[in-house]
Amino acid sequence: MAAHRCSLSALLLIICSLLVFIVADSEKATLTGDHHATAVDNLQTVTETEEGAAAEEPAVEEERRWEETVVEEATADKEDTSAPETVVQSSVPQPKDDFQEELVIRPLHSGDIYASFQFRTLWETDFMRGNKVSHYRLFPKSLGQVISKFSVRELHISFTQGYWRTMQWGQPFLPSPPGAELWVWFQDSVTDVDGTWKELTNVLSGIFCASLNFIDSTNTVQPSASFKPLGIGNVTDHRFLRYATLPREIVCTENLTPWKKLLPCGSKAGLAVLLKSEKLFHSSFHSQAVHIRPVCQDWQCKTTSWELRQTLNVVFDLHTPGQGKLEWSLFKMFSRTLTEACPLASSSKIYIDITDDPQGEQFEVSPATHLLSQAMVLGDRRTFSVYDLTQQITFGTVRSLNLLIRWKSSEGDMLRPLLHAERYVAGYGLQTGEIHTLMYNNHPYRSFPVLLLDSVPWYLRLYIHTLTVTSKGKDNKPSYIHYQPSKDRVRPHLLEMLVQLPPNSVTEVTVQFERALLKWTEYTPDPNHGFYVGSSVISSLVPSIVAMDTNSTREQPLFSSFFPCKEESSYFMRVYTEPLLVNLPTPDFSMPYNVICLTCTVVAVGYGSLYNLLTRSFQIEEPSPGLAKRIANIIRKMRGVPPL
Amino acid sequence: MGLLSDPNRRRALISLLTRLNAPICVVCYMAGVAWFMGLAFEPFTLRTYMSENAMGSTMVEERFPAGERALGTGREFSAHKKKAGGMPVDWLVKTMQSRGLEVFTQRFSRRLPFPDEDKERYMVKGTNVYGILRAPRAPRTEALVLSAPCSPGDDNNQAVGVLLGLAQYFRNQVFWAKDIIFLVNEHDLIGMQAWLEGYHHTNTTGMDWSPLQGRGGSIQAALSLELSSDVVTSLDLVLEGLNGQLPNLDLANLFYAFCQKIGVLCTTQGKLQRNDWDSVSGYSHAVQTMMLMVMKQASGRPWGDHGLFLRYHIEAATIKGINSFRQYKTDATTIGRLLEGMYRKLNNLLERLHQSYFFYLMPSLSHFVSIGYYMPAFGLLALILLLRALDLWIQLATPPPGVLSVLTPLVISHLTGVALYTLPIHFQEIAVEHFPVSETEAVVLTAIAVYTAGLALPHNTHRLLTGRGTENGWKVLKLVAVLYLAVLLGCTALINFSLGFILALTLVPVAAFVTPDLCSATPACTLLFSVFLFQELQEMPVSFLDGWMLYLSVISQGILDHALYGSLVYPLVALLVYPCWLLFWNILFWK
User: Fold this and answer.
1) Which of A393-397, A568-572, B408-412 is predicted least confidently?
2) How far apart are CA A495 and CA B498, in angstroms?
3) Contact A427 B202 (CB under 8 A)
4) Which chain B residues are closer than 8 Å to A429 by Cβ?
5) What is the distance between the alpha carbons of residues A88 and A74, in angstroms, rounded to a whole number?
6) How far is CA B80 from the centre of its chain?
7) What is the distance between the alpha carbons of residues A376 and A383, in angstroms, rounded to a whole number?
8) B-chain residues within 8 Å CB-CB of A320?
9) Which interval of the chain is the signal sequence (chain A) (predicted)?
10) To the nearest 10°, the Cα dihedral for B539, B545, B551, B554?
11) Contacts of B2 in chain A (CB under 8 A)
12) Looking at the partner chain, which of A179, A283, A609 has a beta carbon nearest the beta carbon of B5?
């Protein structure tokens, strides 16, 4: 056997040496091909726009990659794979996996600070081919096993504490609803999707220390149009999609710790050292997410790799009234400074959004940097100062980076976000109610269609015939409606609509509902708190404000590229409304004992006798005759004389 | 029930009830009144206690420092109010924004059905300004409200000052779990009604308002603040809301607990609580306090801005600062600390306030009478009606009672009721044209005219009655009327005990003993009597003429409350109590 393997490897070595040149060529193609962006023209078929951030310092990049693969080479022999491509890589090192990290900081108009972390791990492997993947380097093993065991094609999970205030803060890079949200596309090889989904949620519940195990059929829906795959692949049959939210989920440190453990450097080095829970949870908004999807490795999309994106968005409230001098620093926000990049990262950068302040009039950033970068983010061209943590010069003489922004003036108004939405429950009393969803199109002259997704629990019985959509006082007929009625205790209502929002208008969607009376074991331990209804999801291609971007060769940072665009003039946007808290008719749970006692008494004492009184007629019975009289009567009877 | 299934004993019982009917009724009446008066006696009442765990055991520390600055803001507000000649909307928006709130405004307008002479308004137009303090990391599902009415004149500026001061202080705290809405509403109750209708997107009274732009989810509790002087001697808690609804008792307990903790004098119905319950004056003080609450609750009108929240199942109360001649003074900082403490406790709530009582009477702020204790008083009064009905039924049992003959007076009296309900507002224009009166007077006088016209009806309708003049005829009518009244009062007492009890107190003896020869009182007399009693209880006795004027204005206010806020007392009296009583009037003029 050993001899056989030896001869095989010798043979392969020869092939390899022949292949070296070819591979080197193809790698060049890969590096340049990274810039290619693919786009597909359908709103529903969302595709991937993949930019490599590697172009800035290709020399450094390449060197690092080579180093990494050497490490891999040592371990690659242990893998008992006979696939030729593996052997090729072991002899001709090629970057098989790659890790990038970045932090975007955007000073908001409201005086708050928005910090967005993104960590991306790319791995060229195939989980689906017979569960052979057993060696993990950068990619977390726990998630890899999840992907292969449950045949997951795409997985998106987010945990959010707080509500993104679109009107104050503008658009987030990655929107997420309050609470937990999970949506998964399964491979089309999965036969029992519901069973797999159930298992998957339980496993994820363990991985992220969250109550995802409460996801069951009563809060899971299969949206037909709103959630399309973000990675490659053209299967859009929504039988393989599951979507669920838990609006009540509270996010805290126990969710952050497992999330941080998925990072290659943990929280030991790189940007992740900033993620200290005592500061992250002392903020106005906190959201962490994990997105897994398959992406193209090269421009021909011959090989696919898996992308794991871990994102963490946080908004710090810097409101200090009465103080003229506003300033923040990394230390003030995170109580840490940066000293190094994650050694495993191929790129580690900090971007500061200085679009609103190109001349440095409103605030100044120190230490200053001359590296600038421009990117199209959410239909807007933004300018960023870039700090490259892989370069020692960034840390200066003190060997630590503590970015500092000082505000000079707090003038300037934010552009109103083009699309935002709100939702509330109207009416009073505990019998009926009405859900109002308001969608604002603030674009001055263009109308655009939006997809509204509403998933309402069964205990609010929607009267779908009362559904009205009005804009500017007129009836607005949705061009597409997908409605799946609820089944009590089995599945929720699902309502999806494609609505055209006229320019500069408010579109109001109302639907009436009746509050169901639950069985007494179905109430939560705190029934008087109310019951949550998850956020509506509004997905749309929003026309961009800025002119079309013609300079496609310019490098673009990662965060600008998550939601792909149909065309540069409009961009994909997803808006979540606030969740609803609805009170249901609730019995007084402190009373059952009294009620049981009282009803039992009333039934026992009152009912029987009252029933008697009402149904029977009473007559006075003759007192029973004495013995003598009875005998006399018998005798009289025998004689045929009437008795006494 | 074995007692009743034995025909002999049943016969005995029935004969006892019929023979001693009148004495038993009298005893029941006396017992009912005595029971009610006993409710105010302290040993018979319960001490209040905090039922809600989330507010009970947790400790909060009040640190609000800026009372003086808040008063300064109040003076600034007053200056701007004078300059603007009403609500200084722009200034308020700017001030709230500078305090870090999300600020929104709401415009509303309302044409009253007829001019309100008490408050001198007819076409009401105004703007509400509210700022939302967003709780960090909260998903906008729950909110608390602090409101201060912006009233014309120099009233209530301090309340707005304290509200803005609290907003500024609250903004810098990190512990909020619910959004806090700071609302300054113009035109007191009308503005509040507009805001609440806008918030819940309902329209019960036909008011015009612009839709709200910002919301904070479901409102858990609300406080309304009324302060008109820089220092106050005591704080008064007002609980009575629309249609006699009361907030959960825990809200009152919370207020009382913080007054005790901080050391502020607190009152309810403007009455301090006294410790000498065993003396006659102490007892009569408690009776006065309780009777005031009963009268206010019976009126069915909101006695503060909080009253309108109750319709939406939001626990709310009004806190009024009172400046009298007492020695003890409390400054704005202390009031701010009190409110801070209350809001922090409300912020801790996990569920809506529901643990404690919703039906109660308060003879003092530290004692309460729960529904289980006061209902027997009403039950005893209602029993009289049932006993009389039983008596009549037995008297009528032998000959076939012509029940259908009752239909005519029933229909006629109800039509009169409908006339009383609709005519005053619809005929005001005609009345103003033809008589030298103002619109308000026209409405009130029309109401009184319809009312008295109804009294004349029995004379004219007798011709239509088939069983006229017969002994059984009026007995059948009375049987129906007595049962009708019993059901009516029973339902009323379940919804609004005070109203039911006061109506029972005055109508039951009349209803019980009316025969074709005896004269009787009327619901109008009940109202008149109540007006005088109320003034007496408030220690502001009035002369007869003033009382009469007050009586007229109470009628117009009742009609207005119905039109503006949806108070149900006026329709209840006009559509149900008055026709029912007309039936008795029919009996009186039977022959």
Assistant:
1) A568-572
2) 48
3) yes
4) 313
5) 14
6) 34
7) 9
8) 172
9) 1-24
10) -70
11) 609
12) A609
Q: In the prediction, which pLDDT does A643 show?
A: 78
In SS3 terms, B185-202 reads as EECHHHHHHHHHHHHHCC
Alpha helical stretches, state H, B20-57: 21-38, 53-56
Identify the contact set of chain B against chain A, taking CB-CB distances under 8 A: 1-2, 4-8, 10, 98-100, 102, 134, 136-142, 168, 171-172, 174, 200-202, 215, 217-218, 311-313, 350-352, 354-355
Between A527, A581, A609, which is nearest B217 by CB? A581
Chain B touched by A178 (CB under 8 Å): yes
Query: What is the residue-averaged pLDDT of chain B?
Result: 86
How many angstroms separate the CA atoms of A35 and A554, rounded?
A: 9
The predicted pLDDT at position A355 comes to: 78
CB A239 within 8 A of CB A193: yes
- Which helix (H) or strand (E) segment holds residue B581: the answer is helix B578-588
Closest by Cα among B512, B409, B522 to B468:
B409
Q: Which chain A residue's Cα is nearest to B202? A: A427
For residue B453, pLDDT beyond 70: yes
Nearest CA distance, A278 vs chain B (angstrom): 13
Residues of A in contact with B5 (CB under 8 A): 609, 612-613, 616, 618
Per-residue pLDDT at A65 exceeds 50: no
Chain A interface test: which of B101, B133, B137, B213 (most A C-beta within 10 Å) = B137
Contact B332, B73 (CB under 8 A): no
Q: Where are the alpha helices (DSSP H) in B52-171?
A: 53-56, 67-84, 89-98, 157-171
pTM score over 0.90: no
Distance from CA of B202 to the nearest CA of A (A): 6
Q: Tens digits of per-residue pLDDT, B351-398?
A: 999 888 999 999 999 999 998 899 999 999 999 999 999 888 888 876
Query: Coil, strand or helix: which one is A300?
Result: coil
Are B359 and B244 in contact by the 8 Å Cβ rule? The answer is no
**C-alpha span between B491 and B487 (Å, rounded):** 6
| DSSP assignment letter at A317 | -
Q: Do residues B359 and B289 make contact, with C-beta atoms less than 8 angstroms apart? A: no
The size of chain B, in residues, is 591
pLDDT above 90 covers what percent of chain A? 34
> What was the pLDDT predicted at B15?
86
pLDDT of residue B518: 62
DSSP β-bridge partners for residue B133:
B180
User: Which region among A403-407, A483-487, A565-569, B369-373 has the lowest average model confidence (pLDDT)?
Assistant: A565-569
Chain A residues close to B215, C-beta within 8 Å: 422, 424
Average pLDDT, chain A: 78
- pLDDT value of position A515: 94
Query: Distance from A512 to chain B by nearest Cα, in Å?
Result: 12
How far is residue A64's CA from residue A72's CA, in Å, rounded to a whole number?
13
Distance of CA A517 to the CA centre of its chain: 31
Q: How far is B401 from chain A (nearest CA, A)?
A: 21
Closest CA–CA distance from residue A167 to any residue of chain B (Å) = 10
| DSSP secondary structure string for all residues of A586-605 | ---TT-HHHHHHHHHHIIII
Cα A161 to Cα A255, B138, B139, B566: the distances in Å are: 11, 7, 7, 40
β-pairing, A220-221 vs A285-296, is unpaired
Element (H, E) at B454: helix B439-461
Query: In this structure, what token pair is assigned to residue A617?
Result: 């007629």
A613 contacts B351? CB cut-off 8 A: no
CB neighbours of B262 closer than 8 A, spacing ≥ 6?
A: B62, B334, B337, B338, B341
Residues of A in contact with B140 (CB under 8 A): 163, 178, 578-579
Selecting from B7, B141, B171 the residue whose C-beta is nearest the C-beta of A578 gives: B141
Q: Cβ–Cβ of B172/A321 closer than 8 Å?
A: yes
